Amino acid sequence: MKKKILFINFGGLGDEILFLPAMISVKKEFPESEITLALEPRSKGITSLTNIVDKTLFADIKGSKKYLELFKLLTKIWTQNFDIVISSGSNKFISIFLFLTFIKKRYGYNSGKLSEILLTQAVDLNKNQYAAKMYHDLVRGITDINTELPQIDIERREVEPNTALIHPGVSLLSVKKNMIKTIPAEVWAEVVEKLADSGKKVILAGGPDDKETIETITRIVPEGKYTNMFGKTKNLRELAELISGAEIFLCSDSAPLHIAVALGVKTYVIFGSTDDKKLIPQNNQVIPIKAACNCPLQPCLWERRQTTCEALDCLKISSDNIVLVVK
After folding, report:
1. Which of 95, 107, 121, 295 could bridge across to 141 with cysteines, CB 3.0–4.6 Å?
2. b/e string for 160-195 if b means 16 or more Cβ within 10 A?
3. Going by CATH, does the domain composed of 4-139 fall within 3.40.50.2000?
4. Helices (H), strands (E): how many in the chain?
């Protein structure tokens, strides 16, 4: 019997990529199922990276009309006759929302007694693990299949030897919220030049959010030392294809990191205020680069603080140290 399955995951593009293993495992369990993903409009690019999502529903829950958006989402859900709903939200309100969908089988995180009553299965939330595994816990009661890493569906390029693709930016939304998650552009410029001087074929990439950072790098580093692909990848799919052809990928804690992980590309990631153990798989393909910092709160972002501090000792990483790790 063909099942109609609704997944709900509100968050940025990185969260959507980390949510993929849960969807993939359920699709393998029910190959004929129709998968619908409810998400925020800002993350719609996920549909260009995967073939597993058949339909999408959108709710702009970051706007001023959050509850109206959620009600509109409910009305859309009521017309779809879903068999199963799985939601990644941990808020106490989520179990009520899932109950109001009137979908027979409802899976979400355990947020207290109410969730245990209203959900088919209230799953214990374990944040002390790789986020993809945390999300995958939601479907343990549906399937025994285990998909450990995100997988994306693109046409991969042949790997060009000795290439170092650098994506230095982070989302402007995180910067506006004072969540600083990368080194200054001037340090990135030093990294680009030193890797080029060491013999690497350096390629720069970025999207609209990275314009200021890329302009700083290109102003400092002589043009002949790198290939500038900024603005030449028109969408996420093209960026993913570019990443697939790189021998190594160097980036910040941002969505392109999770694309590289899904592609199995050797990846080096700058980490400061966020927890690498929760955001990357613990394997030799993905290497965190961190400052030798004695801050007792590190990693602080989200768990202990909602914004980063002014000192940012956790991001005082020299270009020499970064190049030493990457080389």
Report:
1. 121
2. eeebbbbbbbbbeebeeeebbbbbebebbbbbbbbb
3. yes
4. 12, 12
Q: What is the pLDDT along the chain (327 residues), one digit of tens a residue?
A: 689 999 999 999 999 999 999 999 999 999 999 999 999 999 999 999 999 999 999 999 988 899 999 999 999 999 999 999 999 999 999 999 999 999 999 999 999 999 999 999 999 999 999 999 999 999 999 999 999 999 999 999 999 999 999 999 888 778 778 878 899 999 999 999 999 999 999 999 999 999 999 999 999 999 999 999 999 999 999 999 999 999 999 999 999 999 999 999 999 999 999 999 999 999 999 999 999 888 888 888 877 888 888 888 899 999 999 999 998
| pTM, full prediction | 0.95
E strand segments, 90-214 = 105-109, 121-123, 160-167, 201-204
Q: Where do the structural domains in the chain lie, given as residue ranges?
A: 4-139, 160-326
Asked if 4-139 and 160-326 have one fold, the answer is yes
Closest CA to 38 of 97, 93, 91: 97
State how far the Cα of 149 lies from the Cα of 300, in Å rounded to an integer.
25
User: Tokens for 30?
Assistant: 């029910």
Q: Please tell me the CATH code under which domain 160-326 is placed.
A: 3.40.50.2000
